[in-house]
Amino acid sequence: MSVVVIEFITLDGVVSDPDGSGGTPLGGWAFRFGREAVAGDKFRLGSTLDEGVMLFGRETWQLFSRLWPGRDDPFAVRLNAVPKLVASRTLTDTSAWANSRLLEGDLVDAVKREQRDVIVTGSLSVVHRLMAEDLVDEYRLLTFPTVLGTGRRLFPAEGPHADLECRSVRRIGAAVLSTYRRAG
Length: 184
Hints:
Low-confidence stretches: none
Structural class: alpha/beta
Strand order of the largest sheet: 4-3-2-5-1-6-8-7
Strand content: 25-35%
Shape: globular
Number of strands: 8
Mean pLDDT: 93
Helix content: 10-25%
Number of helices: 5
């Protein structure tokens, strides 16, 4: 089992509000580069979507549950079919998006018990919690050539130390997809 974090990210490490749905003043930065920059399986999840499980925080799950169920392109079909776990203390109903269920118990314990690969997208509070417990095995980052100067960062100043190894780099339009694995 591996924990894979996938994120849209700016050059200065900001991951908040890439689509503008959060209403932040600089939100929507990833989508300024066109739909082709963000559409489809840019993160090369491939068979991980068929055999793994996705883990979301409440806000990301709610956003995705409004966007993805009505789509029928090949990537959407796979995304809609994958089992989805939702980490939330307030959400009670996950029926809006097929194959979703609330995570039971403690987030860290649930991830440690999981037998399948776990893919976390967005969901920064979930990612930070897993980082703090040294549970993230891989980061797949689609980096956009934008510097915001403000916003929530993937690697916060007070975050834990991590040594990573760059496994691949590929240009996708104006962005760059980089894959980093835990070193060692």
